[in-house]
Amino acid sequence: MRGITANRNRLAETVAASTGLVTALSPALGYETACALALEAHHTGRPALDLIRERELLTEAELDELTSPASLTGLPAL
User: Fold this and answer.
1) Cβ atoms of residues 16 and 47 within 8 Å
2) Which residues contact 52 (CB under 8 A, 6 or more apart)?
3) Rounded distance, CA 66 to CA 43, Å?
4) pLDDT at residue 77 is higher than 80
5) Residue 70: what pLDDT?
6) Closest by alpha carbon to 67, among 56, 52, 54?
7) Spatial CA neighbour of 51 closest among 64, 39, 65
8) Which residues contact 75 (CB under 8 A, 6 or more apart)?
C-alpha cells in the first residue's frame, strides 16, 4: 500500500459529522442529553458537534479533548 496517505481533513470532517460521536460525549453531557442530540442530528442531518456548540453544552477545549483521536481510541497521542 505504498503511496497511499490518509486525508486527515476529510477524516476529521467524517468524525465530526458522525452521530456515533455523541456516544463518546455521553459521560460529559449525560445520557438523556446525548441521546436527544444524536436523534436531532440524525433527523436534521446536522453534525452533533454543531448542535453542542450552538447550545454551549461544552467548551471548545472540552470538545477538543473529548474528541481527540487519543481520547476516542484510548491510544497515546502521536
Assistant:
1) yes
2) 25, 29, 37, 58, 63
3) 24
4) no
5) 84
6) 52
7) 39
8) 69
Report d(CA 33, CA 22) in Å as an integer.
9
Look up residue 63 and give its amino acid.
L
How far is residue 30's CA from residue 2's CA, in Å, rounded to a whole number?
Answer: 43
Instruction: Answer whether 24's CB lies under 8 Å from 72's CB.
Output: yes
Model pLDDT, residue 20: 85
Q: What is the pLDDT of residue 6?
A: 87
What would the pLDDT profile of 14-66 be if each residue is shown by its tens digit?
877 888 889 889 999 999 999 999 999 999 999 999 999 999 999 999 998 99
8 A C-beta contact, residue 59 and residue 49: no
